[in-house]
Amino acid sequence: MTTSTRQQHTAGGPHPGAPADHAHGVAAARATDLSKIYGQGETQVVALDRITVDFRQAEFTAIMGPSGSGKSTLMHCMAGLDSISSGSARIGDTELTKLKDKKLTQLRRDRIGFIFQAFNLLPTLTGLENITLPMDIAGRKPDKEWLDRVIRTVGLTDRLKHRPNQLSGGQQQRVAVARALASRPEIIFGDEPTGNLDSRAGAEVLGFLRNSVRELGQTVVMVTHDPVAAAYADRVVFLADGRIVDDMAEPTADGVLERMKSFDAKARTS
Ligand SMILES: Nc1ncnc2c1ncn2[C@@H]1O[C@H](COP(=O)(O)OP(=O)(O)OP(=O)(O)O)[C@@H](O)[C@H]1O
């Protein structure tokens, strides 16, 4: 991605936290000593225990770990969907803990893209209308050239007039991916985005997500249970008991599986 394309999409100039000249290695989001504690007293659960992690620009990061290790909590805290108990969560240079509700809502709307396991498409709208809906709500005009490129990248050019029930699961999730990409958010968070898809459709969606990182310079952070899905990422961050226990670059499905097995073995012996 070039400087000019990054600048084009932000109506009011570059995001405060987004350097105009994107470079690998710059943090799109950063947690520092982030803790999240649910409940009080005997029912207290430390879901995140002083997490420090960077999610770098134009990188595809997968978050993995056993059930209950804190993956979704970390994603929700970083995306401003849940409050944190202590520490810091930043999107670019913006400290989420300092934002009041209205500003947080705006930040989620303007700077973050979401892809969930359920596609969350509106059934009465066409594919194209679903893709542009968040921008329509925000009163922002889609950048036509960018939109065309996103639609081509996710392979939906001949499906734009279809409604969700006329599309396969994989195609519906591709609409959701395009919807997340359309406004060129600083970061896209995905919570098990291929959890509802068969392996072929899942591979397609993951391929498009990876393309969006490689070709469009998008930053993606995805929670997954699936080592094959994680292998599409540039990096895997492993959580256990609310802590980061490992960080793997250029993962392979076998390598991720081995690492997961070693956590399971440790959990059984501890
Ligand atoms: N709203 C909540 N209230 C109380 N405890 C919660 C809440 N949400 C999550 N937890 C607890 O926090 C811990 C981390 O949960 P989280 O959902 O982040 O794990 P996860 O790694 O995403 O799990 P899974 O893979 O099963 O989705 C768990 O022990 C969970 O029970």
UniProtKB/TrEMBL annotation:
PROSITE patterns: ABC_TRANSPORTER_1, ABC_TRANSPORTER_2. GO terms for molecular function: ATP binding; ATP hydrolysis activity; transmembrane transporter activity. The keyword Transport applies. Keywords: ATP-binding, Nucleotide-binding, Transport. Residues 1-26 are annotated as: Disordered. It comes from the Bacteria. InterPro entries: AAA+_ATPase (IPR003593), ABC_transporter-like_ATP-bd (IPR003439), ABC_transporter-like_CS (IPR017871), ABC_transpr_LolD-like (IPR015854), MacB-like_ATP-bd (IPR017911), P-loop_NTPase (IPR027417). The keyword Acyltransferase does not apply. GO terms for cellular component: membrane protein complex; plasma membrane. Residues 1-10 have a biased composition (Polar residues). Pfam families: ABC_tran (PF00005). Residues 29-269 form the ABC transporter domain. This is Putative ABC transport system ATP-binding protein. It comes from Streptomyces qinglanensis.
